[in-house]
# Entry
Amino acid sequence: MSSRQLLLAARGAGRRFGKKTALEPAELEIYDGDALALVGPNGAGKSTLLAILAGALEPSMGGIERRTGVRVGWAPQRPAQYGRLSARENIELFARLEGEADPAGVAGQLLREFDLPGEPQPSANLSVGNRQRVNLAIAFLGSPDVLLLDEPTAALDPGQRRRLWERCDALREAGGAVVFATQNLDEVERKAHTVAALRDGRIVFSGTVEEYGRAQADTLFA
Amino acid sequence: MKRVFLLLKKDALVLRRSPLLLGIVLAYPVAIAVLVGLVAGYSTAKTRVALVDEDNLPPVVTIGGQRFHVDRTIQEVSKNVDLVRGLSRDEAERQLAAGKVVAVVTVPPGFLATLEQMVRSPQLEIELSRGPISARVKQQVQALVYSLNRQLQSAYIETNLKYVDLILRGGDGTFLGQPISVIGLERAEQELRQMPQTPRVEKLEDFVHDARLALANTGDALRATARPIGVTYVNGRGRTTLLAANVQAYALGLTITFLALMLAAGSLAAERDENVIGRLARGLVGLGHLVWSKVLLAAALALGLGITIAVAFGVIIEIGGVNGGEPWRRLPLLVVGLLLAGGALGALGALLGALAREARSASLVAVLVVLPIVFLGLIPAQIVPPAGWASDVLPFTHAVRFFNSALYDLSPWRQVARQAAWLIALGAIFGVLARLGARRLLV
# Structure
């Protein structure tokens, strides 16, 4: 384990919304090659933890430690894109904001890889699945080392799921890491190496997939 | 800054893709400006004034030998008010209390008899409503009485001149209804010449001669006494009030206030509605840059709409052949004013958007906020000082003053610099507050 590099870590990071605590101070470390699944019931704090790790939400307490030079890609649960812009325009705009050298070229490549329509129809008119593909494609902009995906496969067809995991595997093999929130236990078993289970804003379990299986998920959320 | 312009370009594209929204956003403030103009025009329209005739004025009266058609005379002198006639005193007072009329003018019994005697002035009784409108009504009623007096003055002068003529030339006449016979100065002078010329007779001759010459100028003297200052109306040289300088400035200020507030508020809150704010805020675009992009969007659109309105006014002025005030003479100054005003209002709009957090709420809040801002700016600060103080800390008033001065003052620099400083300061304050408030969008 000592040869692995720490890419991203939550150091007592927590978040309150007014009087409500969405996430108790959490400790989490993400190393190169990791495939970490965040599991837990609705409202457990998975999306909040991912948003804090992505830098999209400031923690109310604690902080985030990111290895110098590490780039993070993030796909929130609800697609984050401009409804009046087409898929290509959305990807190209975020490519420019990410500082991609060839925004148009990258956008074209991602449109092909995610099998997205190239015609200029507003993304608001796209199907739920296609909007999610645009959402995921944007997460891959800027050559991220760590991908933070919030229930990424919920609206994808089997073919798209397979291609997404292939991309994630390739990123991990290249020294990156993937953290994904999911409700799909089958996905956890097949795609994750480690699991962090959350309940009521607290991490109640952290370990390997095998340890998670032994702990019996049902008892964790009883 | 490159990222700010990327967002600005995105917003422009989004607006272009929403022709209905863009049309409404552009047309709505223009419609409001027109409506406010109509309301302002209506406020100077005729007010209802009750005329209670307790003297039973006849259709025709003769004063000083001149015939007056009462109805025609009243219609002529009451052009600025809507006279309600045929009411009893009680009914008129009831309507005054209910606010149906704003004043009651009562012709008391014996009015006409006193007038016909031409010895002392008969009195009209005027009762006014209370409140801010009463001063204007008082002026209108005074104007009504002034017009009536002008007509009567002419009759009085003509009558008095007949007496003067009688004194000059002699003859028969009436005074206070009694027949009189006067020898006249001319005949008196002739009589004196025929008398033996003694020093006393010569003295009388000199006096009569001087008196005759003096009375010969009585007509002009009487008219000058009755009207020491005359007014000559020259038509066609000023512009219609619809194109007046302050109307243009208010129209510009009002339209860009609506536009900038609604757009900045709506577009900033829309970043959260689209769920994009988190994606932008994680290092791609700082919240400060996001606010900047909305301020620039508001300034750019304010410039576009403002120039269009100013040029439209200018074309109308050009067609009307009125010199001065064409916007193209002061276009660079107007451009600066529109950008500054649009920016300051955009910053205020961004603050509203950050506080409201949702595009629909933000637009509603902007509409709710914009009306008091505009109306505060329309209230003269000299009349209601607190309104002036409140509007001083809002960009609308400074924008209007800037446009007014930029378009029409011969030497606008001092005023323009002062208002520009206000707009920059207010824009900076609202911008900082919007940046702080924008953190709410991440929640």
